[in-house]
Design goal:
Rossmann fold; seven-stranded mixed beta sheet; six-stranded mixed beta sheet; 30% helix; 26% strand
């Protein structure tokens, strides 16, 4: 079987970077193979993807030596558009590759852009829609789709170009379990069609039955390689040592929750919210359970145990982020009341009781130094206490650094430091481990447990079963803005 991709001794450094992103990488891929690229964040996985699709060197400038050939074409010597019918890429965030506003237009955009005749475009669209079971997504606005639905349309738009090679860069990072299983089925269909598939991923469990080879990257090098059988046999200890997520998901037994007394727990009452403004409801200024289907959130009563880590789970679009935003007071039209020790917190008072660390912490960093950022959250400015908090999070040496000059993980810890400084009783995290490798996920999980042990009630919205296994005491499952179940977790 001939090689469709040949990378020989590739060395690359991004413009302005101190170290090489790739350091002597060589890789041969046979036609029809499915390859998994794994490794810690920054190991070079995405740079390999960018070599194959031509984004390096045509888009990402820098220094590149070595040879990269795709279908015997020297990637560096042709224009990007010349690779469009050969290599298709599905990115981590599908929104970054959308060009249309509706699903139908997005599916056919690629073939239209390279001048395929209209009749052939229609035939390709019908074939792709049938193969990928997309009838239910046709005629819809891209802005109204869930994360999983957007990823399916992104896959369809790539498949419509009929590329021989399909590249996927962290395709599951924003998807729930059901959407990941649909992504698995899409990749399986491509594999049956004889496509050559290369996947860069942190989540490994859904790929173990699909891949032919696994390439482990470290510090810009190809560190080792396994067959699919060898990879599946790796133990939890072996994968964690390599900073990889598990190849198998842990099973939990779900137990009934012993609901604490109101005085021992945090009571949420009348959490009703709608994104649609209905005049008669605005007039009476209160939602109730009777308002039914128009509500994006409908939780009449919920008691949260104090000092515990509670995983908030559910499918894409189930209402997890809406729930967190309502709890912390960001949704002003939410009618919810939080009761702690007999005292009620309504409206703006909920803001002082809780603190939310967003998935993109760049949206909540405002000052020109780490110390100023933390002290901004303090009612009584206390520099000594600020330094104690920073030291506990390994940030004291960065106290005079601009927050935007920090790494993603460091920025997240600055936001957490601000939450601690604010004295929040409820800490909320929205997808804190999306796209993280296992080592960084472990650090986040340990930090969540430390915050709970210090007395805070921690709510963490997540699609990562690995994080729930590492740190959560309870699981709060949201479905259509309602509590599907609330259970304690026991490792199986």
């Amino acid at each position: 079987m001939s090689n469709i991709i040949e990378i020989k001794n590739a060395v690359h450094k991004y413009k302005g970077a101190g170290n090489e992103s790739l350091n002597g990488v060589s890789l041969s891929v046979k036609r029809g193979e499915t390859i998994l690229l794994c490794g810690a964040s920054g190991s070079g996985k995405t740079s390999v993807i960018r070599l194959i699709n031509g984004l390096i060197p045509h888009y990402y400038k820098g220094e590149l030596t070595g040879e990269v050939r795709v279908k015997d074409i020297d990637v560096g010597s042709v224009e990007l558009y010349e690779l469009a019918g050969i290599v298709g890429t599905v990115f981590q965030n599908p929104r970054s590759q959308f060009f249309s506003v509706d699903t139908d237009g997005e599916i056919v955009f690629g073939p239209e852009n390279i001048g395929i005749p209209p009749d052939e475009i229609k035939e390709r669209k019908n074939t792709i829609v049938s193969q990928m079971d997309l009838d239910g997504l046709l005629g819809r606005s891209l802005f109204a789709l869930s994360g999983g639905e957007k990823q399916r349309i992104a896959c369809a738009s790539v498949a419509a170009l009929l590329p021989e090679i399909i590249l996927l860069d962290e395709p599951s990072s924003n998807l729930d379990r059901e959407a990941i299983l649909k992504l698995h089925d899409i990749i399986c269909e491509w594999k049956k069609q004889g496509k050559t598939i290369i996947i860069s991923e942190h989540r490994l469990w859904y790929l173990t039955d699909l891949v032919d080879r696994v390439i482990y990257m470290k510090d810009g090098r190809k560190e080792c390689e396994w067959t699919s059988e060898e990879f599946r046999s790796l133990s939890y200890e072996q994968t964690s040592t390599l900073k990889l997520r598990p190849t198998r998901l842990a099973e939990h037994r779900i137990d009934e929750v012993h609901t604490p007394d109101d005085n021992d727990g945090i009571v949420l009452k009348d959490f009703f919210f709608s994104y649609q403004h209905h005049p008669y409801i605005l007039w009476k200024r209160k939602y109730t359970e009777a308002d039914g289907d128009m509500l994006a959130l409908c939780i009449p009563r919920l008691v949260l145990p104090r000092g515990k880590v509670i995983g908030v789970t559910g499918r894409n679009g189930a209402g997890k982020s809406t729930f967190l935003r309502c709890v912390c007071g960001l949704e002003k039209d939410c009618t919810g009341v939080i009761e702690v020790d007999g005292e009620e917190y309504k409206g703006n008072r909920r803001i002082g009781l809780s603190y939310m660390v967003m998935q993109d912490v760049n949206h909540q960093l405002f000052t020109d130094s780490v110390q100023a950022e933390v002290m901004l959250s303090m009612n009584d400015k206390d520099e000594e206490h600020c330094h104690e908090i920073l030291d506990s999070l390994g940030l004291l040496e960065f106290k005079d650094t601009h927050p935007m000059a920090l790494s993603g993980g460091q920025k997240q810890r600055v936001a957490i430091a601000s939450a601690i400084a604010a004295g929040a009783k409820i800490l909320l995290f929205d997808e804190p481990t999306s796209g993280l490798d296992f080592a960084h996920m472990e650090k986040v999980g340990e930090l969540l447990k430390q915050l709970a042990a210090a007395g805070s009630t921690v709510l963490v919205s997540t699609h990562d079963p690995e994080l729930i296994d590492l740190s959560c005491d309870y699981e709060l499952r949201i479905k259509h803005g309602r509590v599907e179940y609330f259970s304690s977790l026991v490792g199986g």
